[in-house]
Amino acid sequence: MRLKDELPVDHPLNRVYRFGAGICGLLLLVFGCLGFAGSLSAFSTDGQRIAGLSTNGLLSTVSVVFGLLLIVAAVIGGNLASTVNIVVGVLFVASGFVHLFLIGRRGNVLDFGMSNVIFSFLMGLLVMTFGMYGRVSGGLPHDNPYWRRRHPERAGREAAVVRAGIGAAAREPARAVER
After folding, report:
1. pLDDT at residue 48 above 50?
2. Do residues 117 and 166 share a domain?
3. Does Signal appear among the keywords (predicted)?
4. Contact 63, 32 (CB under 8 A)
């Protein structure tokens, strides 16, 4: 499979994206599986707790789906893992805001409590941080592929200067080292 990435497959940032997606996905998968092990009903809102968070069968399903999505992104790696981390992180933060207003109301079908809202915010920020690492910054170095993609004209000029410097060095005769 060939990805349309500007990062090479073995780029060091790939490990950050994969690690972040894998760890966060595993946490969500374990939480969802614990919910299934507790034989929770799908739309129960009676406040059953697992790992300090209120849950029901629907929230367990959502957790397993997003956990598997993050794990698959970790396996694939590259910019896909980064992008999935960013999107899932934004969804978690948005879910935290939505459920903050739904606590105690009939629309709270995922049985969110305040601990779930805080978890959603923290997990979203963590996953987004893993995804944005090296991609979103005000001071990226000029050899960063994201900087080069955002500034193609300047990157082209800098690459031409480097190539000219390498070409000039190759044309110089080798000098004997004096001892």
Report:
1. yes
2. no
3. no
4. yes
